[in-house]
Amino acid sequence: MKGQEERVVPGQDMKPTILRPIRRRFVFEFFFICFVVALGAVESYYIGFYRFRFTDLVLILGSFYFLLMAVRGRLERKVVILFFIYVFYIVARILNELSSDLSVQETRTLFGMAAVYLAPPIFFVVRDSRVNRKILISLLVMGWVFALLSQLGLLVWGESYAAGPVNLGSILGIRSRLGTISLDYMETTNAIWRAFSVGITLALILAKTPLRMKILGACGLILQYGGGGGGRSSLLFLLVLPLIVFAWGGAISRRERFRKIVRAGAVAMVLTIFYLWAPFGYASQIKSGGSHYDRATEVFVLLTGGWSQADARGGFETRTLVYEQYIEGILSSPDIFLLGTGLSKGAAFEWTGLAGLAHNMILDVWGLSGAIGLTFFLIFFGIAVYDVRGLLRATSEGTIGQLLGFAYSIAVLYMIQFMLVQPTTADRSFMIVFYLASGLLLPITRWVTENPSESSKVLS
Q1: Strand, helix or coil at 409?
Q2: Under a CB-based contact definition with an 8 Å cutoff, are residues 368 and 360 in contact?
Q3: What pLDDT was estimated at residue 296?
Q4: What are residue 348's phi and psi, to 5 degrees?
Q5: How many CB atoms within 10 Å of residue 443?
Q6: 8 Å CB contact between 291 and 229
Q7: Residues in the chain with pLDDT < 50?
């Protein structure tokens, strides 16, 4: 009414600006990344000393949009201040390292790692955008299609990182049509479509869905986790994920929450048993010999024998030893503790195992950028986790909003799984994709709460 203050919905355009035509920022980039990465059509190109990847286009757009939104007052002041302090810190590090005698390779690594650390604007820009049901379903379907293509043998890399492929192509007599295309160069970047595929599969199982959808989810589970790749992180992911989803999902009473946690524990046990059983696995999938069961359960030695026994356990001891070496290196001097070894290193401590990387996001970031850089990273990461919780709490049982909310929350948690056990924070393409995907969480929450006619439709 006239004279009353207009209610502004979070993320809604407050006035006509140049930003209005791009309210759904990065939707095209999402599809582009899914398509190109899945088909392995692009690797990288050298522009002078810099190794340019197509995901850098998203980084450039993200930085442009961030600056434009900051000027237009579309971002919270504290976010803008925080990020510009962070940029000043990274730029100061770059200038300081350039002042030393760097080789061409070290200079290339310096700017590549700087791009990794300057990716958070993508998260904040996407976080302010708008989405709808059509976009969300399309992304999930695309992820599942690419996963199925890999299982049919039509893509070179299958679901090995998800737990070992169920090679339907071999079973059906289908020969790979793309055998000359290699995805070796950045296999973890495929997590953008693999995460969507795993997300919708487990959402169909964990959300309140009809029986036919449960059966569809079970089929996806067989494809993604029936191959027995032996990944320990996948075992922990399936064990812990239902507890997170049920504990955070919806605003419920204490009694109802207890019932949900019991239910989550039962579902986690079923998923874990299926994963350890691996009915479609084969011996060549297992790294370092041994059985899938032995490799997958190595992590439990921490509970039964402690850290010292983990150091002596075949396969798992590499991780524990490198963690110890990283902590020793980080604490070796005040400079390294606060500022790290330098971004031009790429790997903070080359004398350690696992190619000098800790395969853990906290240790890898701490080793390269120090406690200061780690603090900024944990702030950005913490906002993403907060958005996961917010999305899960915003959904209502048995609705399309719950199914899509669960799917995207699980997809981001799946990518976080990689960050805990793989050297992904040194992978520019993966981190760009992570910020792109996690930035969607708040827009989906906004869609769920602002569009009850769409998101509250009961699944039947």
Answers
A1: helix
A2: no
A3: 78
A4: -60, -45
A5: 25
A6: no
A7: 1-22, 158-159, 162-163, 177-187
Distance CA 351, CA 338 (A): 20
- Enter the pTM of the model: 0.87
Q: Do the beta carbons of residue 18 and residue 68 sit within 8 Å?
A: yes
> What is the model's pLDDT at position 174?
63
Give me the pLDDT at residue 182, please. Answer: 44
Q: Can you name the residues that pair with 399 across neighbouring β-strands?
A: 458
> CB–CB of 296/235 below 8 Å?
yes
- Sign of the Cα pseudo-torsion (64, 388, 319, 341, in order): positive
Q: In the structure encoding, which two tokens stand for residue 7, read together? A: 């209610």
Q: With the C-alpha atoms ordered 263, 415, 295, 153, is the resulting torsion angle positive or negative?
A: positive
Q: Domain locations in the chain?
A: 46-173+190-455
Report the SS3 class of residue 47: strand
pLDDT for position 308: 67
Using CB atoms within 10 Å of the CB of residue 357, give its burial: 0 to 12 exposed, 13 to 18 middle, 19+ buried: buried
Q: In the beta sheet, which residues pair with residue 458?
A: 399
Instruction: Please report the pLDDT score of residue 153 as a whole number.
Output: 63
Please tell me whether residue 225 adopts helix, strand or coil conformation: helix
Phi, psi of 46 (to 5 degrees): -90, 125
Is the CB of residue 207 less than 8 Å from the CB of residue 193? no
CB of 459 closer than 8 Å to CB of 208: yes
